Amino acid sequence: MKIGVLALQGAVAEHIRLIEKAGAEGVIVKRLEQLDELDGLIIPGGESTTIGKLMRRYGFLEGIRSFAGSGKPVFGTCAGLILLADEIDGQDEAHLRLMDMKVVRNAYGRQRESFETNLPIEGIDEPVRAVFIRAPLIERVGDGVRVLCEYQGSIVAARQGHLLAASFHPELTDDERMHRYFADMVTESLPMQASGK
Ligand code: GLN
User: Fold this and answer.
1) Which of 17, 24, 144, 182 is deepest in the core (most CB within 10 A)?
2) Is 93 labeled as catalytic in the residue annotation?
3) Residue from 99, 47, 112 nearest 73 by CA
4) Strands 40-43 and 74-77
5) Ligand 1 nearest atom to the CA of residue 82, by list position
6) Closest residue (by CA) to atom 1 of ligand 1?
7) Would residue 78 show up in a list of annotated catalytic residues for this protein?
8) Residue 14 Cβ < 6 Å to ligand 1
9) How far is the CA of 135 from the centre of ligand 1 (A)?
């Protein structure tokens, strides 16, 4: 099973390491054609405006939409969560618009630009160590979106069918359980995926 990490900008190597620890093959994705060989895709943290621009320039906006449209799972972490959202607070334009949710960028204020905490995630047994870096939060979700975790009254992890989003960076610890959770989503999706690889 192959899980790609979109490598236009941001934390890529760390995701590859945890994908492999979770038992799948990690692929660094730089070219659009590479999407065809993947079963699932992670959009990493970084700077969402920059990644969004590069996605538009290299055709990934449409490419990832049809990837997800064919039933292949996508996991967005931090900036990746922002890229998946239908609506971004204070911005006219969103990016992929795949998940029915409204997000707020840099939601934790300057004095708390980065911090770590343990979070209970629905579907994972013990709390997960979560690293937040200039993190977004999810302000509102639609009916089809399941909240997996709240932190201080705000949603920080959610799932809509085969789409997964987290405000934090699960790749910056040695804990591969979030990646295993996503790899399980990919395994479940395999019989339903449209493209006959
Ligand atoms: N603050 C970044 C943004 O708004 C996200 C930060 C991150 O991915 N660590 O795009």
Assistant:
1) 182
2) no
3) 99
4) parallel
5) 10
6) 134
7) yes
8) no
9) 6
Based on the structure, what is the number of domains in the chain? 1
For residue 115, the enclosing domain spans 2-195
Tens of pLDDT, residue by residue over 79-138, are 999 999 999 999 999 999 999 999 999 998 765 789 999 999 999 999 999 999 999 999
pTM of the model: 0.96
Q: Is 47 a catalytic residue?
A: no
* pLDDT recorded at residue 111: 57
- Yes or no: say if 142 and 101 are a contact pair by the CB < 8 Å rule: yes
List 15, 78, 162, 179, catalytic entry: 78
CATH number of the domain residue 110 falls in: 3.40.50.880
